[in-house]
Design a protein that fits this description.
There is one protein chain. This protein has a domain of about 180 residues: 2-Layer Sandwich (Alpha-Beta Plaits). It is about 70% helix and about 10% strand. It is built from 30 helices and ten strands. Strands 1, 2, 3, 6, 7, 8, 9 and 10 form an eight-stranded mixed sheet that branches. Strand 4 and strand 5 form a beta hairpin. The longest helix is centred in the middle third of the chain and has 32 residues. The chain is elongated.
Length: about 675
């Protein structure tokens, strides 16, 4: 087979994602061919195929091995190799150096490559060099420099009029904006990349773009759009048999389920990804799958299975001498020890990871580990000395996050700092930290809201496609499950059947509001993580009782809980069901404690007419409107501790449905905000 035919054959193997076969065949060719000065360029091209085969499956150990072989050849024969081929080789070697955090050497190799490249003759090759240089700065957290290099790559790709490569530059720019927390700008870059990849009919890059865009939607909390984007990527991967990216999409779809706390569902996706990577022989990526599986088991508190999968991942990365991913395993294992209150072991693992990334000058990687060390010392009960140490670590984490402009990290650190300052009775600092948390939250979420219309208009074709097919895609197994979990069952079924505008009116329903008395003061005494855990446990009791009595939960707002009975499913005994539900809530609350401390609640219930429906085009929400909702809310705010404050309208409905007058205590006329005086009662417990 002549060289041209062989080269075409190797490129076909890449197109068919047969990377293991490519590596085997190229390795055999390199070992069995007689190489001399006449076929030196072809030899280096074979090494390029060899390198790419392992690069596609993220096998860093073999990439490094091949880079050393190429390095040995060019040290002897660099003057005999063409400038184009030598530049390609230098870029490959630089790729490995940068992945190993050897940035100084990596930059030197890129500089040599750029010096050899005639950008007018080889603009695509110049563009690839600048992309790699941008990635180096990106990994160092120097985002302004990275952006300039990515823009230079775009400039060179535009010269060559290569739409596929132009799209690639936009993707890298989008990734950088994403890391900065500039989610709208990130989406703009991905959408531009999409247009060029569509023009180039580059289906593989398109699937990656949809994957990356899905990650942006996920960070915005718009899980519906994230799933839609992931599904588009998955559809392409299925069509072109791009299994590796398909596995990545399964991981990301699993992460959505993970975020929704559907850990068993998440594991199903992670197992699918593991199976694919095992079939492809992608050991490193199997290791990443094990890490994800371990995290799911960790959240399910199945610490034995979590430890098993963390160790499986560690074994893979250790055998490949992949220190960076070994550190990810150590960090996860450290978090496992922390959950088991094995503080000395946790500290040992965390400091090992911290020392590694500090030695590599990889400061952005230190943020999460510094944060974990802060959490570790915050858990000690000995107060001041340990808490002060926790404060020191959290402040260092904040310094690193601020330097890197990691806004999402800054948000969670500010929130944790606020709780820790409160435990130290440093109220002014607690307030400032909490205020900074809200400012960042408003900045990110506020920009999202303000620019939503502009984004949709700019990407009209894509937005219309997503809108038209959103419900159809939701009918797919996992998306259907998600829709049913987000909305009342009856409403979800109507939407799945194609009903797009849902607005119902009901003349008589019962509306329930409750909140925890003195919650702001309670919150000051707990760390955010502990507080959220307690709230989750408490409201899970509500959800269980709501299911028992046929009550529809509408939403939780902080420490408040809103529910209704009689819509969307019409029932004639809605007041009776709601009364029994409220009584059970009072009983359960008296038995519940926040870290050993009892709490008190207020409850307000009213019966009347409402309008109910689904709002939103992407993030669906089922909600209620009407004066009856406002009255129920006012009854709650004017209620008594651990008592059920009801209106006369509710009492009339309840008496009718019971067939007798329920036991109540009259409150006389109660002044309700914006409503004036109203006859109200306290419903007596059985």
């Amino acid at each position: 087979m002549i060289i041209q035919e062989k080269e075409s054959y190797f490129r076909q193997l890449i197109a068919e994602y047969k990377f293991t076969q490519l590596a085997d065949e190229v390795s055999e060719l390199l070992n069995t061919t007689h190489w001399d000065a006449h076929n030196l360029d072809w030899r280096m091209q074979c090494f390029q195929f060899y390198f790419e085969a392992y690069q596609k499956v993220a096998d860093s150990k073999n990439m490094a091995r091949i880079a050393v072989q190429m390095q040995d050849i060019i040290e002897v024969h660099d003057s005999e190799i063409s400038s184009e081929m030598l530049s390609k080789t230098l870029i490959s070697i630089a790729t490995v150096k940068i992945s190993q955090y050897e940035f100084t050497e990596g930059k030197q190799y890129i500089g040599k490559a750029i010096g050899l490249i005639d950008p007018e003759q080889f603009p695509d090759l110049a563009g690839k060099a600048y992309i790699l240089l941008g990635s180096m700065y990106y990994n160092q957290g120097e985002y302004e420099k990275a952006e300039k290099e990515y823009e230079l790559s775009l400039k060179h790709f535009i010269k060559s009029n290569n739409p596929g490569n132009i799209g690639t530059s936009y993707v890298y720019l989008g990734m950088m904006k994403f890391e900065l927390g500039n989610y709208e700008d990130s989406l703009k870059q991905y959408r531009m990349g999409e247009l060029f990849c569509i023009e180039a009919d580059n289906q593989a890059s398109l699937s990656s773009i949809y994957n990356n865009a899905g990650n942006v939607y996920k960070e915005l909390g718009d899980f519906s759009s994230a799933l839609t984007s992931y599904q588009k990527g998955l559809d392409i991967c299925s069509k072109i048999n791009r299994k590796s990216t398909m596995a990545t999409l399964f991981i990301n779809m699993g992460n959505i389920q993970f975020s929704l706390e559907y850990y068993e569902n998440a594991n199903e996706y992670f197992e699918q990804a593991t199976k694919i990577h095992n079939e492809l022989g992608n050991e490193s990526l199997v290791g990443h799958c094990y890490l994800h599986l371990g995290s799911s088991y960790f959240m399910m508190r199945d610490y034995e299975k979590a430890e098993l999968h963390y160790n499986l991942a560690l074994k893979i990365f250790s055998e490949k001498d992949d220190e960076v991913n070994m550190m990810s395993c150590y960090q996860s294992i450290g978090e496992l020890h922390l959950a088991r209150t094995e503080y000395e072991q946790a500290f040992e693992y965390f400091t090992k990871v911290l020392d590694f990334f500090t030695s590599k000058h990889q400061y952005s990687q230190r943020i999460n580990i510094l944060y974990n060390l802060g959490l570790l010392f915050a858990e000690f009960r000995e107060a001041d000395p340990k808490k002060e140490k926790a404060l020191d670590y959290l402040q260092k984490a904040m310094e690193a996050a601020s330097k890197e402009q990691k806004k999402m990290d800054m948000m969670r650190i500010y929130k944790t700092l606020s709780g820790l300052y409160a435990e130290l009775s440093s109220w002014e600092n607690a307030y400032k930290a909490y205020d900074q948390y809200h400012l960042l939250n408003d900045e990110i979420v506020g920009n999202t809201v303000r620019n939503q219309a502009e984004i949709i208009d700019r990407n009209r074709r894509l937005a219309e496609y997503e809108k038209m097919h959103q419900i159809e895609k939701a009918a797919a197994a996992e998306q259907k499950k998600l829709l049913i979990n987000l909305l009342p069952h009856e409403i979800a079924e109507r939407m799945l059947k194609g009903e797009h505008r849902i607005a119902d009116e009901e003349e008589s329903v019962s509306i329930f509001f409750s909140d925890i008395i003195g919650f702001t003061a309670i919150a000051k005494n707990y760390s955010p993580a502990n507080l959220l855990s307690e709230l989750d446990e408490y409201f899970s009791i509500y959800d269980t009782l709501a299911s028992k009595h046929g009550i529809e939960k509408i939403k939780t707002i902080g420490d408040a809980y809103m529910a209704v009975c009689g819509i969307p499913k019409k029932v004639e005994d809605h007041a009776l069901r709601m009364a029994n539900f409220a009584k059970d809530i009072v009983k359960a609350t008296k038995e519940f404690t926040f870290n050993g401390h009892h709490i008190e609640i207020r409850i307000g219930i009213h019966s009347g007419p409402v309008i109910a429906g689904v709002i939103g085009l992407q993030k669906f929400a089922y909600d209620l409107w009407g004066d009856a909702v406002n009255i129920a809310s006012r009854l709650e705010s004017t209620g008594k501790p651990n008592a059920i404050h009801i209106s006369n309208d509710f009492l009339v409905s309840l008496a009718k449905q019971m067939g007798e007058q329920p036991a109540t205590v009259s409150m006389g006329e109660t002044m309700l905000k914006n409503r004036g005086a109203m006859q109200t009662f306290l419903l007596q417990m059985d």
